[in-house]
Amino acid sequence: MVSVQESLTPLGKPYIDLIHNDSLDKQARVEHELTQSDIVLLLNSASIQSSPWVRWEIDTAEQLGIPVKRVDISGVAPTYKDMLSVIEG
Length: 89
What we know:
Order of helices and strands: HHHEHEH
Number of domains: 1
């Protein structure tokens, strides 16, 4: 995950739940961060299809008009250029 964070840092201030969420009410923190976001980068993994929480995040982002961009990680952390390509694409 740190590699993903390093790839995103030049593009802005990323929030990665597994790294940054030290709140007592973790769900409220995710909701707050989401409402403050300009874009959501969804790292494709096997678990996102079955996660109701990920579905909620995607649905909420779409309702708020926040673009959701999927990033294929294929077992390898994406580079800065990969992230930029997804954002611009």
